[in-house]
Amino acid sequence: MKLKHDVRLVARRFQIHGAYQGAAPYGSGHINDTYCAVFDQAGTSVRYIFQRINHNIFKNPVGLMDNIRRVIAHLAGKGEGEPDFSRRVLTLVPTRSGDFYHCDEQGNYWRTYLFIEKARTYDAVKSRRQASQAARAFGQFQKMLSDLPTPRLRDTIPDFHHTPKRFATLEKSIADDAVNRAKLAKREIEFALRHKEMCGVLLDAKLPERVTHNDTKFNNVMLDDATGEGICVIDLDTVMPGLALYDFGDMVRTTTSPAKEDERDLSKVRMQFPMFEAIARGYLSSAGEFLTPAEKQLLPFAGKLITFEIGIRFLADYLSGDTYFKVHRDGHNLDRCRTQFKLVESIERQEAAMNKLVEGI
Ligand code: ADP
Ligand code: GN1
Ligand code: MG
C-alpha cells in the first residue's frame, strides 16, 4: 500500500537499529497521522509508533515536544522500579542528532514512540471494568503531574476548553455558512443555541488550575490485554494547564455510551448510569484525594458540558467545510455532532441521579 508519507525515510533519522520492514496507518485519531512501523532486529520483528504532528493545529510543534518531554520525564521518574515500568509511560525514541523530533524536508514534524505491546485502545467501551480502569488511569495521571516542576507547561492550543469561545466560533460558522450547509443542520443549530447559557459555568466557578490531559477519550488510554488494567495514558499533545473537570467530562463523553462517536443509529447512543458510576468511582479512587469539594460537585455537569463542547466543535467544523477534524464520509462531522447532542440529552435526564451518586462517594 502506498502511504501518504515516506515513513521509511523518516525512520532513518531516528535511533532505531535493524532493517525497516514496512509501515501502515494506525489508530483512529482525528488530528495527527499515526503509523505503526516494523523493524527486523536480529530476527525479531519490533514495532514502533511514528507520528506526524499536525502543525496546522499545533502551531508550535517544537514547544509541544518540549512539553511532552518534560511530562514523560516526570512520569518516568515516579514510576522507576515499578513492575512493567516501561509499558506504563510512553518512551520517546531520540533522533540520530539527539532530539525528540525530526523536521523533514516538507516541514513536517515527526516523533517516534516505543510500541506498547500486549495492550490496546478501544473506540467504544465494553464493560464497567474497562470504564473504571480508564478513569483510574487518567486520575492517576493528573495526580502524578500535580507536582510537575515549573515553568508552567505551554498552552499547545490556547483556549482549548474555553467553551464560550468555542460557542462564539460556532456562531460565526453559522453566520458565515461558508459551504451552505446550515440548512442541513437546522435541528442541531437550534439545539446548540438553546444550550448557550451553560457554556460559562466551569470558568465562572473559579476552580484551581492543574496540569491536565485535556483529551481523555477512551481510546487515549491503553488497557493491558492480560489484566485489563489501564496501563498507559497516551496522546500527550494537549497536556497543559487546565481544569481537572475537562478530563473527567471527556471521560463521561467517551466512556459511558456503548456507541462509537460517529454512530448513525442514534437509538444506540445513551449515557449508561452503571458506566458513569464506574468512571466516577474509578476517577475518585485516584483523584479524590486532591479534588476540592467544588470540583467534585461539578463532575456530572462537566460530563454534560464537555460533551456539548465537542458537539459544537463538530458542528462548527461541519458548517465550515470540514477543515479541522479528519472525515471519512459525507456528513461525518454532522453525524459526530448528533451523537454528542443525543448524549447531552441523555445526561440531562439523569443528571439529578448522577449528582446524588457523586455526593455519596
Ligand atoms: P491521535 O492524536 O491521532 O489520536 P494517538 O497518539 O492517540 O494519536 O495514537 C493513535 C492510536 O495509536 C492510539 O489510539 C493507539 O491505539 C495507538 N498508539 C499510540 N501510541 C502508541 C504506543 N506507544 N504503543 C502502541 N500503540 C500506540
Ligand atoms: C481530537 O486527536 P484525537 O482524535 O485524540 C481532538 C479532541 C476531540 C476529539 C474528538 C487536538 O482528539 O479535542 O475531543 O478529537 N483533539 C484536538 O473525538 O483537537
Ligand atoms: Mg488519540
Q: So how many helices?
A: 11
CATH topology of the largest domain: Aminoglycoside 3'-phosphotransferase, Chain: A, domain 2
Summarize the amount of helix as a percent range.
40-55%
What is the N-to-C order of secondary-structure elements (H for helix, E for strand)? Answer: HEEEHEEEHHHHEEEEHHHHH
Strand percentage lies at 5-15%
How are the strands of the biggest sheet laid out side by side?
1-2-3-5-4
Q: Average pLDDT, to the nearest integer?
A: 97
Using DSSP, what is the number of strands? 10
Q: What's the alpha carbon Rg, rounded to whole Å? A: 20 Å
Question: Runs with pLDDT <50, length 5+?
Answer: none
CATH C-level label of the largest domain: Alpha Beta
Provide the CATH architecture of the largest domain: Alpha-Beta Complex
Main β-sheet: number of strands, strand sense, barrel status?
5 strands, antiparallel
Distance between the amino and carboxyl termini: 51 Å
Fourth CATH level, the homologous superfamily of the largest domain: Aminoglycoside phosphotransferase (APH), C-terminal lobe
Features:
361 residues, alpha+beta, five-stranded antiparallel β-sheet, 11 helices, globular, binds adenosine-5'-diphosphate, binds 2-acetamido-2-deoxy-1-O-phosphono-alpha-D-glucopyranose
Chain-wise SSE layout:
Blueprint: H1 7-11, E1 19-25, E2 33-41, E3 44-53, H2 61-79, E4 102-103, E5 109-114, E6 119-120, H3 128-144, H4 163-176, H5 186-194, H6 201-204, E7 210-212, E8 221-224, E9 230-233, E10 240-242, H7 244-255, H8 273-287, H9 293-297, H10 299-320, H11 332-359
Antiparallel strand pairs: 1-2, 2-3, 3-5, 4-5, 6-8, 7-10, 8-9
Helix pairs in contact: 3-7, 3-8, 4-10, 7-8, 7-10, 8-11, 10-11
